[in-house]
């Protein structure tokens, strides 16, 4: 097919949100086949950069993208939030937002409601206290902040149990990184390819 055919097909997916419907259908098939389990969900988010230059026809950056600071570095773009099946490592939930959206704000949208536990990094500290998550009855396996882990390791014998628990949490949530690696390294989605969140979401 030529470029116009592919573009028209992409527009159909976008206008009718067919990509989302396909995503849900595939997940349902996987669940029915016993591939996708429901006991646990791993959650995380990653920043996808967008062009920050204003050297374009509109002389402005994409208004739906925003900047955020991670560590000591500023990033401009969008953020992909995912919920991953703890057993299979397959993604069952996806939400896209501007990069400045706090990870915690989308946590409720990444859960399917049948989880027994939720695993996340330290950026999700405080999740059990959130009003919108008050009725979520799960075991929260959320990592301690790096500063606290560093303090624990200063007295390894005294804090042996706490340190082991942190290592176990890290091993459980490691699978959540795999979908990001596939998206960015295999599919080349390191940068947003289109303007606007909806186009990139589809």
Number of strands: 6
Task: Spell the H/E element sequence.
Answer: HHEEEEEEHHHH
- What is the SS-derived class? alpha/beta
Q: Judging from the principal axes of the Cα atoms, what is the shape? A: globular
Strand content: 15-25%
Low-confidence stretches: none
User: Approximately how much helix is present in the residues?
Assistant: 25-40%
Enumerate how many helices there are, as a single number: 6
Q: Taking Cα atoms only, what radius of gyration do you get, to the nearest Å?
A: 19 Å
Mean pLDDT: 90
Provide the number of structural domains.
Answer: 1
Q: Termini distance?
A: 20 Å
- Main beta sheet: 6 strands, mixed
Family: Belongs to the transposase 11 family.
GO molecular function: DNA binding; transposase activity
Keywords: DNA recombination, DNA-binding, Transposition
Protein name: IS5 family transposase
């Amino acid at each position: 097919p030529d470029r116009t055919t592919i573009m028209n097909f992409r527009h159909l997916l976008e206008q009718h949100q067919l990509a989302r419907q396909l995503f849900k259908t595939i997940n349902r098939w996987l669940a029915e086949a016993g591939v996708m389990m429901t006991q646990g969900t791993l959650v995380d988010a990653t920043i996808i950069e967008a062009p920050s230059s204003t050297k374009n026809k509109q002389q402005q950056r994409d208004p739906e993208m925003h900047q955020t600071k991670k560590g000591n570095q500023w990033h401009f773009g969008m953020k992909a939030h995912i919920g991953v099946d703890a057993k299979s490592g397959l993604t069952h939930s996806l939400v896209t937002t501007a990069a400045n959206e706090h990870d915690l704000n989308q946590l409720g949208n990444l859960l399917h409601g049948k989880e027994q536990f939720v695993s996340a990094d330290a950026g999700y500290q405080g999740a059990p206290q959130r009003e919108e998550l008050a009725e979520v009855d799960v075991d929260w396996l959320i990592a301690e902040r790096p500063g606290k882990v560093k303090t624990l390791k200063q007295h390894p014998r005294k804090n042996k149990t706490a340190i082991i628990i942190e290592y176990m949490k890290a091993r459980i949530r490691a699978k959540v990184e795999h979908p990001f690696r596939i998206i960015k390294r295999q599919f080349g989605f390191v940068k947003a390819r289109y303007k606007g969140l909806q186009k990139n979401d589809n």
